């Protein structure tokens, strides 16, 4: 019957991907069973044809590159075991889009991913950001920013025209604030990729809506990070002026 067919299909998929996950294990990458099942379900559901490799592996999340037809995906997987869910809870709580009733560790992480997914979509309407494709529990699938599966470099790792980039980035920060009503919340040369000589913003996990009680403090932090980076690159800038420019205050 259909269920059995599905099982057969999954078995084949699992077989094909076993090597990939075997390699992961040797790199000490341990996912819980539930997360592995989600990754397999992405393959079985043909949302992804194959996982290619690890782009980044941090304390809280791993980012894989993957292929779907001729397109490439970035798959961000939150590590349920090591996520700072207390901080996550604080960010979600003040967000009018969310009402957390029950709050197990996993549920908070799911809400976190949901929030990142929605933030990406909202930000993508006004600035360059990877297209959010789907989310499932602690897993987020988005467009891979890069060329032929090779991720674009971070602003911190390439030479650009810094005067020009300062202008574009500060204009984008204003757009994000005034039009999308979002504050990135973790903006720095680490979370800006450079593609076709333009900035692409990533990692909207900490972003909050402007009504959020933390939004002002986060914006000040973003503004300081950006100013410090560009000052080091010889751009004349002042974080108070930038804050005024963005908020109109
Ligand atoms: P970190 O703690 O290192 O900042 P993170 O958990 O915050 O990691 P991200 O910043 O979203 O996760 O992603 C980590 C890295 O993976 C990024 O610095 C970037 O190099 C790469 N990356 C993430 N998303 C994409 C994408 N859509 N396309 C290309 N590369 C990506
Ligand atoms: Mn990041």
UniProtKB/TrEMBL annotation:
<dbReference type="InterPro" id="IPR000687">
    <property type="entry name" value="RIO_kinase"/>
</dbReference>
<keyword id="KW-0479">Metal-binding</keyword>
<feature type="domain" description="RIO kinase">
    <location>
        <begin position="20"/>
        <end position="248"/>
    </location>
</feature>
<keyword id="KW-0723">Serine/threonine-protein kinase</keyword>
<dbReference type="InterPro" id="IPR051272">
    <property type="entry name" value="RIO-type_Ser/Thr_kinase"/>
</dbReference>
<keyword id="KW-0418">Kinase</keyword>
<protein>
    <recommendedName>
        <fullName>non-specific serine/threonine protein kinase</fullName>
        <ecNumber>2.7.11.1</ecNumber>
    </recommendedName>
</protein>
<comment type="similarity">
    <text>Belongs to the protein kinase superfamily. RIO-type Ser/Thr kinase family.</text>
</comment>
<dbReference type="GO" id="GO:0046872">
    <property type="term" value="F:metal ion binding"/>
</dbReference>
<keyword id="KW-0808">Transferase</keyword>
<keyword id="KW-0460">Magnesium</keyword>
<dbReference type="GO" id="GO:0004674">
    <property type="term" value="F:protein serine/threonine kinase activity"/>
</dbReference>
<dbReference type="InterPro" id="IPR008266">
    <property type="entry name" value="Tyr_kinase_AS"/>
</dbReference>
<keyword id="KW-0067">ATP-binding</keyword>
<dbReference type="InterPro" id="IPR011009">
    <property type="entry name" value="Kinase-like_dom_sf"/>
</dbReference>
<dbReference type="Pfam" id="PF01163">
    <property type="entry name" value="RIO1"/>
</dbReference>
<dbReference type="GO" id="GO:0106310">
    <property type="term" value="F:protein serine kinase activity"/>
</dbReference>
<dbReference type="InterPro" id="IPR018935">
    <property type="entry name" value="RIO_kinase_CS"/>
</dbReference>
<dbReference type="InterPro" id="IPR018934">
    <property type="entry name" value="RIO_dom"/>
</dbReference>
<dbReference type="GO" id="GO:0005524">
    <property type="term" value="F:ATP binding"/>
</dbReference>
<keyword id="KW-0547">Nucleotide-binding</keyword>
């Amino acid at each position: 019957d259909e269920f059995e067919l599905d099982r057969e299909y999954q078995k084949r998929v699992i077989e094909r991907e076993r090597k990939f996950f075997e390699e992961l294990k040797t790199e000490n990458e341990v996912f819980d069973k539930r997360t592995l099942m989600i990754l397999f379900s992405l393959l079985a559901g043909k949302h992804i044809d194959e996982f290619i490799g690890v782009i980044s592996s941090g304390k809280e999340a791993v980012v894989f590159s993957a292929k779907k037809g001729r397109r490439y995906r970035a798959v961000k997987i939150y590590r349920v075991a090591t996520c700072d869910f207390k901080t996550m809870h604080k960010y979600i709580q003040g967000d009018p889009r969310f009402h957390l009733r029950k709050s197990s560790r996993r549920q908070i992480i799911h809400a976190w991913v949901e929030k990142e997914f929605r933030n990406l979509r909202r930000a993508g309407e006004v600035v360059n950001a990877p297209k959010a494709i789907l989310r499932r529990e602690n897993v987020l699938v988005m467009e891979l920013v890069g060329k032929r599966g090779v991720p674009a470099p971070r602003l911190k790792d390439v030479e650009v025209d810094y005067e020009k980039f300062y202008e574009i980035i500060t204009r984008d920060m204003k757009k994000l604030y005034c039009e999308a009503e979002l504050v990135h919340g973790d903006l720095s040369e680490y979370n800006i990729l450079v593609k076709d000589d333009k900035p692409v913003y990533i990692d909207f996990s900490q972003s909050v809506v402007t009504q959020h009680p933390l939004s002002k403090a986060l914006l000040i932090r973003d503004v300081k990070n950006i100013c410090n980076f560009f000052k080091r690159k010889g751009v004349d800038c002042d974080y108070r002026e930038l804050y005024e420019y963005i908020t109109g205050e």
